[in-house]
Amino acid sequence: MWLKPEEVLLKNALKLWVTEKCNDYFILQRRRGYGEGSGGLTGLLVGTLDTVLDSTAKVAPFRILHQTPDSQVYWNIACGASQEEITQHWEWLQQNIMRTLSVFDSSEDITSFVQGKIRGLIAEEGKVSLVQEDDPEKFREALLRFESWFCLPEKEKLVTYYSCSYWRGRVPCQGWLYLSTNFLCFYSYLLGNEVKLVVSWVEISRLEKMSSVLLTESIRVCAGGEEYVFSMFLHLQQTFLIMEQLGNYAVRRLIDKEMFPDDHILSDPLQITKRGLETHARNEAFRAFFRLPREENLLEVYESFLWVPFSHFNTLGKICVSENYMCFASQDGSQCHLIIPIREILSVEKPDRSSRALTVCLRGKRALKFSEVRDFERLAGTIRRKCGSTASPQHSVSNQVTSLSEFPSSVISLKEKMKEQSWQIHFAEYGRGTSMFCTKKTRDLIVRGVPEMLRGELWMLFSGAVNDMATHPGYYTELVEASLGASSLATDEIERDLHRSLPDHPAFQSDTGISALRRVLTAYAYRNPKIGYCQAMNILTSVLLLYAKEEEAFWLLVAVCERMLPDYFNRRIIGALVDQAVFEDLIRVRLTQLTEHMTDLTFFSSVSLSWFLTLFISVLPIESAVNVVDCFFYDGIKAILQLGLATLDYNMDALLCCHDDAEAVTILNSLFLICRGRPTDYVLVFFQKYGDIQSEEVESMRRRNKLYVIQTLEDTTKQNVRQHFLSCYWTANSPALLHHDPSLAYLEQYQLGLSQYSLLFSLLQPWGPGTNTHSLALWAFRLIDENHDGLVNFKEFCGALDILYSGTFTEKLKFLFKLHLPPGRGKVDLQAYLKQWQDEIQKKEESIKDLPRINQTQFIQLSKTLYALFHGDPEEESLFRAVARVTSLLLRMEEVGRRLQENTSPSKTSTSPLQPLSPATSTTSPFQTISPPETIASPRPDAAPVETVTSKLQVAHLGPEPSSPCKTGSDGAPASPDGSSNPSISSSTMETEPANTPSDNTAPTSPTDMEWSFSFEQILASLLNEPVLVRFIEKPVDTENLLDRARKDQLKAQMMK
Length: 1057
What we know:
It is found in: Cytoplasm, Cytosol. By secondary structure, the chain is of the alpha+beta class. Helix content is 47%, strand content 14%.
């Protein structure tokens, strides 16, 4: 590896290098203690010295020096980890440099030429990958050591490295900590004792700063049940920040398979750098503090004073400039802060150059005066370039309905009028709209209650949703139009929960409120399919619609789900679990009496889950709940944590006397009922109790607990999946582990082939063992193998068992029906919904009419399957008779339909209501085509084909009766009563596998030759008429006993081998 030329004084080298080769201009040396004669005390001392001093010689014990003639100063220009590598560099110098050096006259020219050549080689090598590093030369040397010591994959990207000590018990090991995109590594070498650690970021459950008597500051890392402590950092806070960023980055990629396409800093793992991670953390903190859209990045920061008109003095703070906003925060972060959209700025003036002052003129005849601004000329130029002419949407006139709630002036109470007056005074002093000063007084007004008429406006302002809506005009309308008619699992769940959202509120007892709620939730699910829809979103959105316009409610929902409560509304609710872990930590610190009484605080986590997911809306009266939402939009999750702590504190004495969890839940619920008459007082008292909790403290606790929560979830999932398969089916040496793919999600890692699935299906099917269990397993495997790769994963397997164990009568029958359809047919979109758009578009219910009709071969096989399911059941005889009646009824109805078609076929223009459609295309129930009921009871004498088919079904499934032996034709097919073989029910009909050839859809020429078929509706309607069949299919399954029996059977089979 070529090195940036550095001076080396051989006189002080202490004989640590041995010369191998030399000429007039270059010297090749080997580090003493390496290679020949490397053992002994010399090797130990040299190795220790190299590690402690971070010498490249530890991993590159060969080097090349350029010597200046008649001088004691040499220049180190290359190093190598092996003899071959350094020899290549030496030969290159001999071929490309030596001949040229002879033309120079002076030593200075020779040295300058060599240095220029080496620097050119280094620049060419590091032009792509190392250009973003702070010190490319040092980083190249560190990268060489990292690759040599840890032997990680070639694409593993080293981010940064630090000198530190690793504590093994009570003994510190001085070495180097290397942080890469996927691993935390440490290396130390002291007097022959080598210490090497490699820990994956995804295995880390705890990452926190700590201090003790011996160590003032250190970093503790917990991973895989082990604890690692690192100390003696030069910049501990910087190191901890980078470690947090890398841990969070690795976990997000693991959980969500997220590749960060919108973040150029994290989009490519091979381009992640220390500087990039620091920038990313700074941008996230900037956006979180000022509640800005995620597209904003912190570009420039200036220290300055801001003239505060309501206090009549200058306050020191920082000006933060992003792409579209200019923000200011006072030095302590709590005295005042404001957000100035660039679109609101009219001009920038520089009235006094001596004081480095700027005056920013805003719309609405307002001006902000900044003074003592460092580099104020640059700031003024930046703002002028960014200034635009977009009007603020804050007070624009709109024809939309303000909200679902109406507030007639005649019913506004005196208390509401006093609140409005207080806020009007506040607006006059501090401004109104996006550029309003936010101070302690603002927070006090929020806690005391927001007027009903101003609630929507202030929610938009404090959440930052007003900026999202202003920068995305028309976006919501486009989403509503695009999502119209879209169908997904999210839309199905939305429709189910629409009428559960504040059902007692008048606003949601009419189609107006329900339609608005549907549009907002569907639009958001379309915008963010990663979240889609999660329970509790409907309750939150309902409250938002009460006080905000429909589009504003949408942007408020965006702000809550994507910024204020990140990772709350997904399938794992990781964000809520993280905040519950923070809540437990706060209980331990703030409520020590409760902690001593209840050692296990997980009870409070389970109770408080609904508090966090619904912002107390689900447990508090609506009058108090909206006041909590007021505080949440201003303070974020800190407000919910404060209220949760105050709730437990208020009930401290009663909780200490509780004997069980049920009694504690009753006590907490009683408090929520008490506050029904005094909503504002309830929130005011509780927030004043724990108002000293800082947002920075909460965010730090969030980051500390996130790794632990995610690691716990992953370990639990991994353990459940592994335990289920290993205990119920697989052994440690089973060949089934060949299908294990660790790169997939845990629920999809373990997969079954057909033979393995058949065995497991026979153990876990809800019916008794029958003659066609293997066939059912084959058909079920083919049905649930959606990607047709010949493998069924754990998730698909559980989905099928869920239908068979817990499905409704229709779902179970539909599953059996689809088993007998040919491959490639019968796939139905179960979420086929059309969305209702106002009163013009009606919702399309899930239709069983979309299932294809089943032909005679498939119907006979379905009947055989039903007979086989009843084997061994106490009501076996009644079930057989019921299926026989259903089969006979369906066949007679089909025969009647065929004869009606035969009678009406000569007259194609007839409009008789008795004329049926073709069996292959008809979707009308046969009960609508049969007018006289006597037709079924008294068929015509020539109806032999139906009776023949019925008798063959009975013979095929029930077997011949003793007094009437079964007759067969010459080809082995069941014979008709007259002794002839029936061609429509041949031996191929009785095969285990259903026919793969679609039925002929052409119109038959005669009733006896016609290809008949049945729809799922016909079969369902017929089976519903037999209560004994309904009871059998709907019979509940004892899943626990079934799994236990399967486990025992599998263990018995293994022991017999």
